[in-house]
Design brief:
The protein is an all-alpha fold. The chain contains four helices and two strands; from the N terminus they run E-E-H-H-H-H. Keywords: Membrane, Transmembrane, Transmembrane helix.
Length: 157
């Protein structure tokens, strides 16, 4: 049973996958270009490259691949191509939650900044959880369709 039948309460799950994948592709490209420009500036000024910048670029490239597979999987109705996005999103959610928890107790001392960060990241985490559940619903729907199609073959009992 799929948790959701529609994405954003109004469109088909497949349409939601296309929109989510396209938005993810665009944001990943922006992150890759921005990170590359920052890395280029660091190299030109002979400063030492921070590992976080390189990690951010690699993470964005992985995201780009996962979002492309999400779109391709939704278009081809191949549920297995959607799994990389689901895993990527769950790892992203866990990472953001850990970073938010660490920042809450470590670096920032102003209360209003902490509250603002918790609100912004809280809303972002809730949206991401919703989109992951929508894509899990689409995954389950496609798996169910595939099983039903296989059961309608020659050896159906």
């Amino acid at each position: 049973m799929e948790p959701f039948k529609k994405c954003c309460f109004c469109c088909k799950l497949e349409t939601g996958a296309y929109i989510l994948g396209a938005a993810g592709l665009i944001l990943s490209l922006v992150n890759i270009i921005g990170g590359s420009l920052i890395l280029n500036k660091i190299i030109i000024t002979d400063d030492e490259s921070p590992p976080s910048t390189i990690f951010h670029i690699i993470y964005s490239v992985v995201g780009l691949i996962c979002f492309a597979l999400l779109i391709f999987g939704a278009k081809r109705r191949n549920s297995w191509l959607m799994l990389p996005y689901i895993v990527y999103s769950v790892v992203s959610l866990a990472t953001v939650a850990v970073v938010l928890f660490i920042e809450e107790f470590n670096g920032i001392h102003e209360t209003y900044v902490k509250v603002g960060l918790v609100l912004v990241f809280g809303v972002a985490i809730c949206l991401e959880v919703y989109f992951v559940l929508c894509m899990i619903s689409l995954y389950l729907k496609l798996r169910k369709e595939k099983c039903e199609n296989e059961n309608e073959g020659f050896f159906k009992l």
